[in-house]
C-alpha cells in the first residue's frame, strides 16, 4: 500500500480536522489511485473517546466528485470539551469503498503544549520596500516552538464599472439588472499555503513585540478597499518543529541532496496492522490562539493603484448587436455604452 499522509492537529477546546491521502509513486499510472474512506476516534488517558465524523476534504469537494473513486478522506472531531491536563492519541482505520477494513493506524500519546497568547496584530507602512507589514505581538507562556496559519478576505473593485450585461438567452446586450450585485464589486478569500514556523529556544524573553510575519505589496488588490486577516497560532513540540522544519527546507528548495524526504522522517503515527506501511505527517496537541485584524484603505490610502489597461483605436459599429459581435470576436466584454 502507498504511504498514508496524515495532516492535522488535535486542538484543545476547538474542532479538530484530520485529512488523509496517499503518496503516489512517480512511476504510478496517472489513472491509478487507491480509493478509500476512513473512520477513527481520539482517545484520552482518562478513557475519553471522541468519534470522528467523515467529511470530504476541500481538494476533492467538486461537482464531479465520485464517492466510489475517492482518493482522499477527512475526519472532524468535536474536541471542544477536552482539557489540556492529560495526553491524547489518535486512532484511524482506512476502509475500501465497500466498507472493508484495510489498515489500522495509531499515533503516539501526545503531550499538550502550553497555549500562547496573542496580544495583538498591527500593520505598518514601509514605502521603501513598497510593502505593508503585518506584525504579531504575543506571549509564549513557556512554549518555544510555534506554527501559524492564516485566513484572508478582501474586497476589491474591477477596473471599470459595469453598466451593460450580455443576456445569454436572448443573445442581446441590455442595461445591467440593478437588482443583482454589480460585477464591479468583488470579494475573495485565501488560506495560507506555506509552512510558517519559528522558534524562541535561543531567546531569553518570553514574548515577541510586532514580529513581522506577513508582508503585502502596496500594489496588491488585497489592499484596494478592505482587507481582513485572521491568524491562528499553535504551540508545537520540539519534534514537531524539527519535522516541519525539514519539510519546509525541502519544499522551498533550501535543503540539499542529503536532506531527508518526508517519507524518511519519523512520524508519530504508525500502522499497527502492517508495520511495513509508511506514514507521512506529524500530529500535535495544542490550544490554538487566534486574532483578527482589519485594514481599511479609505482611512490609510496605502494602496498603490496600478495603470489601468487601455486599448486605443476602438473600431466599433453603431448598433449594439454589431458591437457585441466585434468585442466577443476579440476576447473582450462590453462594460459601458458605446456612443457615436
Written account of the structure:
By secondary structure, this protein is mainly beta. The chain has three helices and 22 strands. It has helices spanning 238-251, 297-300, 320-329; strands at 4-8, 10-11, 15-22, 37-44, 49-51, 53-55, 73-78, 88-95, 101-107, 117-126, 131-139, 145-157, 164-167, 172-175, 185-191, 196-199, 207-217, 226-235, 269-271, 279-280, 285-286, 289-296. The chain has a five-stranded mixed beta sheet, with no helix packed on it. A five-stranded antiparallel beta sheet has the order 5-4-8-9-19, with no helix packed on it. Strand 4 (37-44) and strand 5 (49-51) form a beta hairpin. The N and C termini lie far apart (69 Å). The relative contact order is 0.18. Residues 57-69 have low confidence and may be disordered.
Question: Notable features of this structure?
Answer:
3 helices, single chain, 22 strands, mainly beta, 5-stranded mixed beta sheet, 8% helix, globular, 340 residues
Q: What is this structure, in a nutshell?
A:
It is built from 3 helices and 22 strands. With 340 residues, the protein is mainly beta.
Number of helices: 3
Question: In angstroms, what is the radius of gyration?
Answer: 26 Å
Helicity range? under 10%
- Give the number of DSSP strands: 22
Q: How would you classify the helix and strand content by structural class?
A: mainly beta
**Strand order within the widest beta sheet:** 6-7-3-1-20
- Percent of residues in beta strands? 35-45%
The averaged pLDDT comes out at: 83
Backbone shape: globular
**Could you name the ranges where pLDDT drops below 50 across 5 or more consecutive residues?**
57-69
